[in-house]
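Appendix B: a complete holo record

For completeness, this appendix reproduces one full record from the ligand-bound portion of the collection. The bound molecule is zinc ion. The inputs are the chain sequence and the ligand SMILES; the output is the full three-dimensional arrangement of the complex, encoded as structure tokens. No fields have been trimmed.
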Amino acid sequence: MRRLILAFAICASVIVPIFLLVLFPPWWPIALGVLALSHALVLWPTLRPNSQWLGPVMTSFEAGANEVWLTIDDGPTDDTPDLLDALDALGVKATFFVKGVLVEQRPELVRAMLGRGHTVENHSQSHPSGAFWCLPPGKVAWQIDRCSNALETVSVRPRLFRAPVGMKNPFVHPILARRGMTIVGWSVRGFDSFGDNVQRVVDRIVPRVTAGSIVVMHQGRGFSVACVTGVVRALQAKGYAFVVPAPERLNTKR
Ligand SMILES: [Zn+2]
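The structure of the chain with zinc ion bound, as generated:
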């Protein structure tokens, strides 16, 4: 699919418009339309989180009865110790997708995550939210490798990568494949990066969770600990158990 989209995009953005404009100048609106379509075909799967058009994005996992996976992005941040205490009190293991630059600054917080039995994976070096989607291949590779290198200093060899804000351009999948890494999206999110209303986040997430859901939340916002606690309690009340699935159990169904 990815190769088909890119081949079409290259043909449609260069060859077809030139061919039409040289041989049939009055057909310029068609050339313009083809050009716009070629751009849209690349931009849509790039900007749309969890789109599978450019390659597999893991959006759920093969679950036993009522199992869900809690993933927490953007750490390690100052609230990590409180968050770890809260997860311990709730009896929950999670996966932290961390930023390399913060790992370099606060490796002791990552060691604390690992020491409490959680797993830690790659969420890019500097988390360029507004630019990751349009980075050239060298910079994409740098974002991934630099974060992996930071994690190796705390004895973690990441196998999973979550793109900043879920956007991945056509370079990301081949770069990850060469490193034996898999891109992970999510099944359910609660937009907990914004606001301070715990109940609103709980109401967004909990009704949409099913067995095998990947729930994405964040840390480092003022209400993150309360937010994670509220969502976990509500899901536990519905009978869900939290697990960290092996990468082999991940799949692309939603
Ligand atoms: Zn993030």
